[in-house]
User: Fold these one by one.
Assistant:
Number 1:
Amino acid sequence: MASVDSQRRVLSGMRPTGRLYLGHYHGVLQNWVKLQHEYECFFSIVDWHALTTEYDDTGGIRQHVRDMAIDWLAVGVSPSASTMFIQSQVPEHAELHLLLSMICPLSWLERVPTYKELQEKLSHKDLSTYGFLGYPLLQAADILIYRAGLVPVGSDQFAHVEFSREIARRFNHLYGGEDDFEERVQTAISRLGKKTGKLYTSLRRTWQEQGDGEALETARALLKEQQSLTLGDRERLFGYLEGSSRLLLPEPQTLTSHEPKMPGLDGQKMSKSHGNTIVLRDSPAEVEEKISRMPTDPARVHRNDPGDPARCPVWQWHLIYSDEGCRNWVQEGCRSAGIGCLDCKRPLIASIQQELAPIQERALDYEDNPELVRSILAEGSERAREAARETLVEVRQAMGLTYR
Ligand code: TRP
Ligand code: SF4
């Protein structure tokens, strides 16, 4: 069986909640578009996750999934460079979720911060359901089913990735342990050959005794190069670097991008519930209208009052869209009241319109070709299934669920 290079595998997911906005583009999607050329990427439209909160109104999901797929494609997520798929079309996620549910302590789920937070925020809904409580575990299954080492998400998701790590650790501890682990490890090391075996042992010691992350990386790279290792030995040697069990499910890490954060039109977080978004499909006229209405530094009541960009949400947008020359012009002009706020907004309007034009053109092409979108998602889901099945075979085996 093919072994997986987890350090090169990326998984991320997005709930199908309708049209995507600029915040998604700058915060997440641009990063995905870049990552797809550097890693083996799986991008999932997580329709089951939508059900955890929208179970009482499922009529829109189908359309939302399609709209979101088109937005992804339009911004450049490429079906040939990455695998984009619909979560529910890969039922293996559900099997892993079930198996993990057996080892997941209730208290771990109850203390995930988003659990109480969202329940309070969505207090008009009854979210004391089994599915909603299990949401982070479903997310863990989404990640672990691909043995993805890297998860590009925003800070609101860090707790969920951390939770996935804890579940992976528990799984490895419960099912990756072997009575004769040490012995098997020593045999595996001897199979590396004298020189490589020595190097592995000393790198492991440097990592374990001095916490030298570079030694860990080098040891991992060394193992990766070993073509002749069996899968079992590989898992043992990877596991031995960090503990005393096989690494059946590697622990995922978040992968953060360093883009400046894009607030909503009013300076708060951009979100549908705040009504402060620009969606990727907004027309040039809508963009102009929305930016023109953006609030500015409250101290600038009159055109002649000087302002301070630090107190203005428009400035945050300049940080994303404008070059240094333009930014200096804003700083200068704002503080000296040399420019008016509408002047200040004009280059922003133009940049956003320019950015959106090609995206919207591509989106139209896909809108006109629903069959193409359907087949991209079907093929992606099939590819994802193959990878997911490989993991499940090992998971079932490790848990003792093999009957042949
Ligand atoms: N919980 C994520 C969100 O609300 C969506 C998600 C589901 C996800 N499964 C995932 C993100 C796996 C990353 C990896 O945004
Ligand atoms: Fe904000 Fe620009 Fe107006 Fe200054 S000039 S308050 S930065 S919009």
Number 2:
Amino acid sequence: MSFARLGLSAPILDAVAEQGYDTPTPIQLAAIPAIIEGRDMMAAAQTGTGKTAGFTLPLLERLSKGKPAGNNQVRALVLTPTRELAAQVAESVELYGKNLKLTSFVVYGGVKVNPQMMRLRRGVDILVATPGRLLDLFNQRAVKFDQLEVLVLDEADRMLDMGFIHDIKKILKVLPAKRQNLMFSATFSDDIRNLAKGLINDPVEVSVAPANTTAATVEQRLHPVDKAKKPALLSHLILQNDWKQVLVFTRTKHGANRLVKQLEADKINAAAIHGNKSQSARMKALAGFKDGQVRVLVATDIVARGLDIDQLPQVVNFDLPNIAEDYVHRIGRTGRAGASGHAISFVTTEEAKELADIERLINATIAREVVPGFEPSNQVKETDLNIKAKKPKKAKKPREFSSTDGAAKVAQPRRSNANSPAKKPAIGQKPAGEQAANKPAKRRVWRNKPKPVAN
Ligand code: AMP
């Protein structure tokens, strides 16, 4: 199936061809014809699936047929949770709409409001906005919605997570009742369905990848390590493997700043991107990372969500996220659009609960690998392992146990029943069989023994 058969006109098809896309992604196949037809839509699609083009292309197609926006008017409104995502969506609108006469603009907080008000006076066909700034502009009468035809909520789940529900409700109240509504979300939680109830009419529902499935092209690995040794381990891996572009996640803004300092002390060029940074600093860090001047970008979850960086080869979870779903979003930054990528997580024994949540969510056990020189000192008590250190039977070697040059494999789906008790080694521990064999620590990948299959 080609883009030409989805109902898009020549100027849009030319722009798409210029991007080098020849086959629509599954979300694009499902969304483009339905949106052109004017249907409401609820789509479960994560970043990396081509969802932005999935709603932008048909939006451009529809708007290209109507009357241009009058003064202060907006014909399509795209709401996004973060400034970065807003900027990226606006970039896509410009790119795919370059052969059309439509106008577009992006507004978000953290920058001066006056230039935004000035530009909005002439009206825009497509406005991309974060909710807070949009409300400010509306309250100052800089933007009007009488001509509004389409509303898009992008990453709706994240907007709710970030507490934008009240802003969104206020915005919905001032929009004309007759409009097309498109909602994109990584997951369809109850909250999302509740929001959709009052908003979306008879929607086409699309789900392109089962929620919370980690991309098959991402090789995942865990490095058990002591907390204090995490920065040194990161520098060691970057230098040893000669990683050129690494996105690193920390749990806190302060932690991100501190890590940048530590990396720079190791002569590794790094920048932080998080909510306490000014918008210009965030944009500068991202641009530097994209063009190769910044080798390591250290980010917190909220800001990193939705970042589109082509073919990012390496993601490191310096801290595990508190919310298991964020693990999926984080590693979704690599291995995108079919490219292979690596996601490494540093795990301390204190993070055992977060790890258990993540493995339950992705329904897989991630390969563990202790890096020589960084063996965790804080060994977990045997009772915590839920495994008796008895001598292994001969045949009971660890299921997968291979020496490696650093390449791990994709996490394996669990074959077990979720109700059966977990019998797996804790972080920092080798499988029972290996402990008994008392082999010297070598660089190895090992996997946990699968739990028995319950009938
Ligand atoms: P998104 O999920 O919207 O963040 O898009 C992820 C990436 O896929 C972006 O870098 C797009 O440029 C790229 N992309 C979108 N559609 C296609 C397509 N049909 N073929 C190849 N790449 C695409």
